[in-house]
C-alpha cells in the first residue's frame, strides 16, 4: 500500500512538473491545463487558485452528471488537487525563473514536447495506482460512459 501512495505522489509530481512546463512555454498544452491558463487570465488568479477552484467545480459537476454524491471520491480528488495545484504553481515559477518562457521558438518547442511526453508518464503512473484522480479524469470517464 505504501508503494501505491509513493507512485501516486510521484505521478502527480511528474504531471505537475511537466504540465507547468507546457503552460510556461505557451506553445501548446493538454486540454485541461490550457483551460487553467484561460481562467488565470480571465479572473486574475494564480495558477494554484485556478487549478484548485476549477477542480472543485468539475468534481461537483461530475457528481451532478452521475446523479450521485460520492464524498469518498470527492475526498480523493481533493487529495489529488491539493499537492497538484501547489506543485503546478511552484514549478511554473521555477520554469519562468530559468527563462523557459523567454527561449527562442525551437528550444521552447523542444521543451514543450518534452513536457507533454513526461506529463503522460505521470498520468500513467497515478492512473495505474487507481488511488486518486484529477477531477478532469473522473469527468472524462463519466462523459465516456454516457
UniProtKB/TrEMBL annotation:
Residue stretches spanning the membrane: 42-66, 78-99, 105-126
UniProt key word Membrane: yes
Keywords, ordered alphabetically: Membrane, Transmembrane, Transmembrane helix
Name of a matching Pfam family: DUF6198
Name listed for the protein in its UniProt record: Uncharacterized protein
Organism: Lactobacillus amylovorus subsp. animalium
Amino acid at each position: 500500500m505504501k508503494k501505491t501512495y509513493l507512485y501516486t505522489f510521484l505521478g502527480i509530481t511528474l504531471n505537475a512538473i511537466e504540465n507547468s512546463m507546457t503552460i510556461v512555454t505557451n506553445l501548446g498544452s493538454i486540454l485541461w491545463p490550457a483551460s487553467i491558463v484561460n481562467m488565470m487570465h480571465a479572473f486574475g488568479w494564480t495558477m494554484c487558485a485556478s487549478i484548485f477552484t476549477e477542480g472543485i467545480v468539475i468534481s461537483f459537476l461530475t457528481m451532478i452528471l452521475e446523479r450521485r454524491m460520492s464524498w469518498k471520491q470527492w475526498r480523493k480528488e481533493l487529495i489529488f488537487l491539493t499537492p497538484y495545484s501547489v506543485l503546478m504553481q511552484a514549478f511554473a515559477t521555477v520554469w519562468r525563473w530559468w527563462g523557459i518562457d523567454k527561449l527562442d521558438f525551437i528550444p521552447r518547442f523542444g521543451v514543450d514536447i518534452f513536457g507533454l511526453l513526461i506529463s503522460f508518464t505521470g498520468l500513467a503512473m497515478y492512473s495505474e495506482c487507481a488511488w486518486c484522480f484529477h477531477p478532469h479524469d473522473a469527468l472524462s470517464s463519466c462523459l465516456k460512459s454516457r
